[in-house]
Every structure is written in structure tokens, then in C-alpha cells.
Amino acid sequence: MPILKNDDEQISKVRIELRDLSKSFGSLNANDSVSFHVDSGEILGLVGENGAGKSTCMNMLFGHIKPDRGTILINGQEVQFPSPKESIKAGIGMVHQHFLLAPALTALEHIELVAGRRARVDAKKAMRDLGFEFDLAARVEHLSVGQQQQLEILKVICQGARVIILDEPTAVLTPVEVQPFLERLRRLSESGHAVILISHKLDEVIRVCDRIVVMRSGRVTGIFDAASVSAESLAGSMMGEGMTGVKVKTSRPEAGTIPVLKITDYYRPDGRGSLDVSFVVNQREIVGIAGVEGNGQEWLFKVILRIAQRMRGESGSISVAGRELTSLSVQEIRRAVRIALLPFDRRSEGLLLDGDPATNLLLSGVNPASYRKISLRWISRFGILPWGILRSRAVELFSKYGILPARWTGPVRLLSGGNQQKFVVAREMEQDPALVLAAHPTRGVDFRSSRTIHDAILSARDRGAGVLLVSSDMEELCSLSDRIMVMVRGKIVREFKRAPDDGFDVSGIGNSMVSAAPGGSVGDGPGATVGGGPL
Length: 535
Prior knowledge:
This protein has 18 helices and 20 strands.
């Protein structure tokens, strides 16, 4: 099978060519005559705003979706991929933004499932060549997010992929993990692989790619040499206008002194999700949490919402808007206080993917009767919901938050990932929440959508909400937060305050973050030693 070879030996060369690929979903024209190619030894960037058609195009190449018209050629020969199985046989591999891994299986078991038992030697060699650092005997649930991504890439290499498609690969990485990852991409291309990199991070695309394909509204609007193009030129081709950048409001209302979220001496015993934290989030304040993923951030949200299983030895108190939550059920919490949740995984935790937007509005913590014109008495009397009003409300939110297509009534799984995220934000933030729990709110979305989401978070803060923000994007954390806490193995180990010049000690935050253990489990191992830097 083609894997990484010695310096004097390359994998067989390949050229993938797309000619006039087109695909429609009902009235939505997702791809319209898309044409470009990628060669062995090349990293090709694929950029565009959410809904531009990037994922649809790659899903046709990978066999997930059948084109309505157009052709795919490998080394000049036309091919058809009825399913990913045929695409994989042809040497095409895809690493999705949402990993396809079983937590209870080991890394090696995943490799053997897709490439057979003889793949162990090939996997170890590929790991050495690429600089991957994780234990093949470790279960996936014990790997960090970055290590899980390495495993996904290793899987497609061991399957014999000559062309590797990566969908927003750096979106899940911490700042210190990005540069090593980009260096590994260059090693892949130097070994003879062709790499297609889908990303919204234009600076990274320019830094690592050879050529860049720009898409807008389902069409290719430009193909650029990365060595001679600027981020402003790419943005103009993406949006049809000059680079606007992602700017957030510079004015910062003075934080209130009334706690919205108060966690006092909360302790959850060792094991999955071990936590030992105390902190406060006040009204009109955004508190950011920085840290390598897998150090307790997700479990912190779960214990606040009381969706984590209770454990013997759990102690301490958690209150929101003055209401003690530790003795309440999830349903009681949603009725008692207004909490907006932007979850860690929008697809599995934030949406009913097969439901339409109106149905998904019912997942928010707000009683449907809070929507105007809906009568509680009417609902209780007839036992039905006024779907017409809910659909109208969905149309309003789509318009307000720039979600496309504007009047979509189909299943939300057919929306682009960025538009799914904006819909979750719209649904949750329109509750006028007292507390916002936001996890990676702009992961995988373009910069125009990022600005929309940032504005929604800032508007909630300005109205008096407290915001607890988890993000692996350091620029996002530093631009939005009033304070930043660093979480290591379930504990808050440092707190950084915004300096008078409106800045944070970024190097100090980074040093504190990387003191975390590389594994994804929290609560085990020796205590952390944190880096320096002024508070």
C-alpha cells in the first residue's frame, strides 16, 4: 500500500481533476460547474464563505454525494464514485471536521479496522516520518483532540491514500499545535501526496499551500498562486468585496458586581471529568477559558447544566442568577434560569439534524410560548404547537443572522457547517439569556459569520448577561474576554486580566496552557507547573 516512502522513493504520482461538477438540492444550487485540479506533491487550498460549496464539492470527490453533472478524472481517466468505498480504493482519503472515531477502541484497533493487521509496521513508520506523537495502544477517549486528528490522518495514509482531503483541520488545534501541524502537511506533500486543505484561516492557507482555489455561491471565482496573493485579495474573491476583517466592539461596559454564575469549592472526584474549581462570572462580563482540549472544559459545562452523571464524593455549589442548581434536574434548570448554550459539538448536542429549523427552535431553553403571538392557553387546550408561527420565526432568524438559504425549510443537516452554527447561535441568543455558555462559537465559520456571532455574544453581554467562553482561538479569547482563566487537568491554574492598553499576556497564557498533560483525560497525573508572565 502507498505510505510514506524513503527519501529516494515517492508514491505513485497522481492528478485529480474536477471538470464542471454541479450539484443541486431542490432549489439550492450548491455547486455550479466547478473545475480545478491538484497534483502529487502539492497542497491546494480551498477557501470560501460558509455555504460557498466547498464541502459539497469535496463530498462529491469522496463519493458521499453523486454529482448531477460533470466529471472527475484521475490521471486523465474518468472515474465515478458511487460511495466512499470506491473513492478510498482509488487512493482518495478524507479527514472530516467531526472525527469518525470510537472512544472505546485503541488507536491501533482503528488502523487495523481500515487497513488490516499488517498495518502496524506501516503505521509506526508513518508516525515517525510525520512526527506524530501518541501511543497506538491508547484508547481514543484518552487521546487529546490534536492526537485524534493525527490518528484520522494516519488511518487514511495506511489505507493507501495518495490524495488527502482535510476539512478545517486547524479549527480544533490550540495555537501551539498549529505550526507543527502545518509542517507535517508539508512533509506529506514532499513525500508525493496531494493535499486539499479546506480552511477559513487565510493566513494559514497562504503560509502552507502552493495554490488556492476560491469559491463563492457554488462557483470557482479565482485560482491563485499562494506565494503572490494577499489575504485581502482572497477575501475580495470570496465575498465579492474588499476585506472587512473581523472586528469586535471596542467599548467595554463596566462589569457588574452581581454574580450570574457562581461556583464555590466545586469538586468532582477523579475519573472522567474530574473537576476542582471555584470562580465567578458577573453580569456584563465575558470570562474566557483557555486550555488544551480535554482538560475539563466540556465537563465544566456539563456539571453547570447538571447533565453529567452524579458521582459519590461530589461537593460544592453552583448557582446561576442566585439560584442553586446542584439539586435540580436538567429540565428544572431550564425552567428556572435562562441559559443559552453554544455546545462543544453543534451537530450531536445542538441540533436535530433531520429536523427543520422550526422544529429545532424547540430545543432552546425558552418555552415556545415566549415567542410572540403564541398563547400558552392555546397550546395547553389543543395540545399542538402553531408550526406556522415557528416557521415564520425561523425565517426571521435566518434573515437577521445571515443564514443561507434565507427561507430554508428542509432538514438542517443539509445546511453548511457554518450556517448550522449561526442557527444555533440565533436560536440560543434570542432568548435574552442571563448566562451564556459558549464553546468554540466560531469554529469552522468564515470571518463574516465570525463577526455576526461575536456581535451576538457582545450584545448579550451589553444587555446584562454573563458569558463563559471556551475557545481554542487565542485571538478570539483575547478580543472578547474581560478575564481569561487557564484550565489544566480540571483546575483553574492561572487567571489573566486585561491590561489597561486592552491587551493580555498572550505568551503567559500559552505557557500555562502547554503545561497540561498531552492526554485527553483530566484528573489524573501529577500537578501542573504553570508558566510565568504578569497577571
